[in-house]
Amino acid sequence: MSAGNQTRVDKGSHQRTDQLMELVVSRTNMISAYRKVVRNEGSPGVDGMTVNELKGYLQTNWEEIKKKLLSSLYYPAAVKQVEIPKRQGGMRQLGIPTVVDRLIQQALNQVLSPLYEPTFTDSSYGFRPGRSALQAVRQSRDYIREDKRWVVDVDLSKFFDEVHQDRLIAKLRMRIEDRRVIHLIDRYLRCGLMINGIERRRTKGTPQGSPLSPLLSNIVLDELDKELESRGLSYVRYADDFQIYVRTQRSAERVKTSITKFIENRLRLKVNEKKSAIGRPWERDFLGYSFTAEKQTRLKPSKSSIKRLREKIKEKFRQGKGRNLSKFIREDLNPVLRGWIHYFSLSETKGFSEALDSWIRRHLRKVRWRQWKRRWTRMQELMRRGLPECRAVQSAFNQRGAWWNAGASHMNLAFPKKYFDHVGLVSMADVLNRTNR
Fold first, then answer.
1. Residue 278: strand, helix, or coil
2. 19 falls in which pLDDT band (50, 70, 90)?
3. What does the pLDDT look like over 364-413, one tens digit per residue?
4. Cα dist. 184→202, 212, 406 in Å?
5. 212-215: Cβ within 8 A, 24+ apart
6. Which conformational region is residue 158 in: left (phi greater than 0), alpha (psi within -120 to 50 degrees), or beta?
């Protein structure tokens, strides 16, 4: 990649935006984008090119690509559509651009983000540098503690599929003078979706999965943020998840009605009435968390988050049948537990973590009981684990099932918590205790 004519984009309200494409294709920006794309890996797009093949392709073709970008003659390839499961059930449509288009979109994102970032509101937390879902959850808790104990929970129906492209392009034109950038983004929005080898043209939406999509979604929803802010409402938004906190049920009903009209009439997006509701914060989930009902509201994982974790752990146990238990804990179980409790480290209750730890240890004891198979083996192993012979015989020949035995006192004595601590099993209760000291 050769150095382009770099145009400096200064922070502030008087940024020069008529030569942004030179900044996009500059050597420094493209190298940074390349490193990010390679680091993120990801699946190949419609052309089958992997991130490992990108460097060699660019060495041969970058000058021609750059020339087309600068002359507004570059056209992106179609996006490969795939489906992934949603956390709440159902399937989510993702679009996978080619690695070359991911590179260009990442380069665009790196130039445009500093342009828009200072204009976004403080209550927007998704896909922004230095901001996170956990900050959004903490802000929600603080609003509830201010006695705003009614929540307006609005669900945007298939937001990424419903973005009005013409409105988005019009908003981009208001800040970006470089028409080459506008045309390129417009082409990315309208390029086809490849489904089972057939390309389908798109007239609305922006595909989830592209490096530029998060920024574009924030630009679209910034208009909603500004409207909520102008009304003096306390709200928190993370991507297309947002909640508004008010003091009374009557206020909540009024806000829900007026904001729904604004979203559908002004933004031309759809509100999912079945999933949208008003209620008490402890009756609703937000970003996987829920809240306690007492005056000094505390954070905790939602029931649905705990249910999904249990289902994921059960699947791990099904996949890990017959494996060495210590290796299974280290390679399969611990990464799941560590990642989950890290996200829920803001939790201010710990009863759920103790219950989950106990449930997981019981599952592990059940695995061990089944691995012993024969009654004589069970008797010998229980004795080896310190049980008296009489007790070991009674336990091994009790005719009960594996799950019952896993919760019985003889297996708890044979495999106490300190045993699992010794083999390295992550204890979520211990992690929370250390975090909240």
1. strand
2. confident
3. 999 999 999 899 999 999 999 999 999 999 999 998 999 999 999 999 99
4. 15, 12, 60
5. 212/105, 212/106, 212/108, 212/109, 212/185, 212/188, 213/160, 214/109, 214/126, 214/127, 214/239, 215/109, 215/112, 215/113, 215/116, 215/127
6. left
Cα 401 vs. chain centroid, distance in angstroms?
39
Q: Which helix (H) or strand (E) holds 396?
A: helix 389-396
**Residue 263 has what DSSP assignment?**
I
Find tokens 């045993």 and name the residue. 419
Question: 116 with 218: CB under 8 angstroms?
Answer: yes
| Full DSSP string of 5-23 | ------SSS----TTHHHH
Percent over 70 (pLDDT), the chain? 93
Helix (H) or strand (E) holding 91: strand 91-96
Tokens 């260009």 belong to 104
Average pLDDT of span 111-135: 95
- Contacts of residue 189, Cβ cutoff 8 Å, sequence gap at least 6: 165, 168, 169, 202, 205, 206, 216
Mean pLDDT of 19-47: 94
User: If you compute the radius of gyration of the chain from its CA atoms, what whole number of angstroms results?
Assistant: 27
Evaluate if residue 178 carries a pLDDT over 80.
Answer: yes
Query: Which residues, in sequence order, are CB contacts of 184 under 8 Å at separation 6+?
Result: 21, 69, 72, 74, 104, 108
pTM of the model: 0.85
Residue 437 pLDDT more than 70?
no
